[in-house]
Amino acid sequence: MKIGIIGTGNMGRILAEALIDGNAVSPSSMMITNRTLSKALEIQNRYPDLTLGRNATEVAENADAIFLCVKPHDVLGVLETINPVLSRNKCVISITSPISVNQIESKVDCSVMRIIPSITNRALAGVSLFSFGARCTMEWRETLFTLFKKISVPLEIEEEITRVASDIVSCGPAFFSHLVQSFINGAVKETEIDQNTATKLTSEMLIGLGELLSQNHYTLQSLQEKVCVLGGITGEGIKVLDRETGDMFQQVFRATQKKYETELERIKEQFGL
């Protein structure tokens, strides 16, 4: 199977590198391209056996599974460009949440699915979110699910939870990185610890936390109960967190949903449905 990636920005590059480093595909079975070819060339320099396509049409013509890793408002233009070379046995995969599989199916005759990756997939971890088009063959469903098991935990989701699921698995690392940085900054401002030491300690703590959860030693709730001894120091910190965070995360999801709805309207205007 030949994998094609159209668009090698942040997520396109992460996807290409994860699939290769996770031994899901070999570099020789992948072809990539980007509007600015120098970005794609950077990836080829790392994996010399990978093929660099001159444009989207060349990639779509030579690949079996074609990943569209471009901005949402560029997807329709790419679909219209590559449609003449899309035979029925190919599969088009979008990685962007505002565009539904139904909208893409309205423009092409091949199998269609959406796979929303996460930056955590670069570490061969985290979740990838799957949605399948009505015409997507069982063979393609099984093939891509198996492929992504090498770099993630693939999970099929319903259309109505696409945004919140994407917020958790795809945006979540950025949200929590922001909180962690605030945690570090607070320690530096209020105590004698320096930035580098605080960052090192916090990073190692997070890695350890991840391992505890991964190895099923604790759940999030039981871990908190183990550390938060009644009347202890941790409890005092938890009181502050309860008081200060309040409905913060409700507001986060409210804001992302509002932005998503705006994107949906713009995409509907483009696709006409």
Automatic annotation (TrEMBL):
Q: What is its EC number?
A: 1.5.1.2
Pathways per UniProt: Amino-acid biosynthesis; L-proline biosynthesis; L-proline from L-glutamate 5-semialdehyde: step 1/1
* Cytoplasm in keyword set: yes
Q: What PROSITE patterns does the annotation carry?
A: P5CR
All copies of the Pyrroline-5-carboxylate reductase catalytic N-terminal domain together span 2-97
Q: Could you list the residue ranges forming a coiled coil in this record?
A: none
Provide the transmembrane region boundaries: none
Cellular compartment(s): Cytoplasm
Enzyme class, first EC level, given as a word = oxidoreductase
Q: Does the keyword Oxidoreductase apply?
A: yes
- Write the record's keywords in alphabetical order, separated by commas: Amino-acid biosynthesis, Cytoplasm, NADP, Oxidoreductase, Proline biosynthesis
Q: What are the binding positions for NADP(+) in this chain?
A: 6-11
- Family classification: Belongs to the pyrroline-5-carboxylate reductase family.
A single Gene Ontology CC annotation of this entry is:
cytoplasm
Specify where it is mainly localized. cytoplasm
| GO terms of biological process kind | L-proline biosynthetic process
Q: Which reaction does it catalyse?
A: L-proline + NAD(+) = (S)-1-pyrroline-5-carboxylate + NADH + 2 H(+); L-proline + NADP(+) = (S)-1-pyrroline-5-carboxylate + NADPH + 2 H(+)
Q: What does this protein do?
A: Catalyzes the reduction of 1-pyrroline-5-carboxylate (PCA) to L-proline.
Which residues does the UniProt record annotate as the domain Pyrroline-5-carboxylate reductase dimerisation? 159-261
Its name, as the record gives it, is Pyrroline-5-carboxylate reductase
For this protein, the record's InterPro entries field holds: 6-PGluconate_DH-like_C_sf (IPR008927), NAD(P)-bd_dom_sf (IPR036291), P5C_Rdtase_cat_N (IPR028939), P5CR-like_CS (IPR053790), P5CR_dimer (IPR029036), Pyrroline-COOH_reductase (IPR000304)
